[in-house]
Design a protein that fits this description.
Blueprint (H helix, E strand, L loop, with lengths): L7 H12 L5 H9 L8 H13 L3 H4 L20 E3 L4 E10 L4 H12 L2 E4 L2 E4 L33 H8 L7 E7 L4 E6 L18 H4 L17 E4 L4 E3 L2 E4 L4 E5 L3 H27 L1
Family: Belongs to the RMI1 family.
InterPro entries: RMI1_N (IPR049363), RMI1_N_C_sf (IPR042470), RMI1_OB (IPR013894)
Protein name: RecQ-mediated genome instability protein 1
Length: 287
């Protein structure tokens, strides 16, 4: 067995003590070796390693020290009325669904962003550069007329303010999540009580409006909601009921992070998945 990097134990101990992360020894040695013969100071190494773990697949970067740091065998068994996690488990989010809003309303929210529209109160408003009414701006109760198209026809380009405000609308939930532990075990989870940072941006999955794409430089701002690959820390005694983890603020901590490739694919397919779920529900209802 090859010798460990001289800083291995210090970094590993710090990640365990500060963040409850049992890092994979092989991954950590590879990471430390990649820093070269003159690595940065220890605090910087620890911080960078922590960031890399949050941005990676924990099945390759985290190694549970015992069965208590992973989901128990048969955790998804719906025949087990209730059980509790024995230890602290790090899990990553593979999917998230806002079950507090209808799927159709979520599809509509995505499409409004794609058209460069936003919602204020009960109104749907198209915001136009240089044509807004300062007296009505930001007033949810005001009456706003639909702007006339530009001379010669064509579409009206949404302002950056429109795109930004649309992206900042967040789901309230509750949310249903698909989680995975470091050993690859997957299980559903339900947000029983509102947990800070578990939320979705209504613009997640929305493509850039055609009028904005034509400008060449416009881009949608970064979504403020939860990302796919986000890491959660589940504390001991977290309740698992009928094969579903019950998430509550006292037992669940959102650590953050994102696996870029997963998040990109999830957003590209979100609208399609929601539409498919609507079709399945309609088919079941009509049957």
């Amino acid at each position: 067995m090859p010798a460990m990097h001289p800083l291995h134990n210090q970094v590993s101990s710090a990640l365990q003590t500060r963040h409850n992360i049992s890092v994979n020894p092989h991954w950590l040695d590879t990471f430390l070796t990649s820093r070269g013969p003159n690595p940065p100071p220890l605090p910087a190494l620890i911080s960078t390693a922590h960031f890399r773990i949050l941005a990676s697949d924990i099945t390759t970067t985290v190694s549970p020290r015992g069965t208590a740091e992973a989901f128990p065998e048969g955790i998804s068994d719906v025949n087990v009325k209730e059980r509790r996690l024995e230890g602290t488990v790090i899990a990553q989010v593979l999917d998230v669904l806002d079950v507090g809003s209808s799927k159709w309303s979520q599809v509509e929210a995505i499409e409004r962003v794609e058209r460069g529209e936003e919602v204020r109160g009960r109104e749907v408003i198209r915001t136009v550069n240089g044509m807004g009414n300062d007296n009505n701006e930001g007033d949810a109760g005001s009456v706003n007329a639909t702007a006339a198209p530009p001379p010669g026809g064509g579409t009206i380009a949404p302002s950056s303010t429109t795109l930004s405000s649309a992206a900042k609308k967040l789901s309230v939930g509750p949310h249903k999540l698909l989680l995975q532990d470091a050993r690859g075990t997957k299980v559903l989870a339900f947000e029983l009580v509102k947990i800070p940072k578990i939320e979705l941006s209504t613009s997640a999955s929305a493509a850039l409006p055609p009028s904005a794409r034509n400008l060449g430089t416009a881009t949608l701002p970064e979504d403020p909601g939860m990302f796919i690959g986000c890491k959660l820390l589940l504390k001991p005694d977290t309740v698992v009921r009928r094969g579903v983890i019950m998430l509550t603020p006292d037992r669940c901590v959102v650590l953050g992070g994102k696996v870029e490739a997963w998040d990109k694919k999830w957003k590209e397919e979100r609208k399609q998945r929601l539409t498919a779920l609507i079709g399945e529900e309609n088919a079941t209802g009509s049957g």
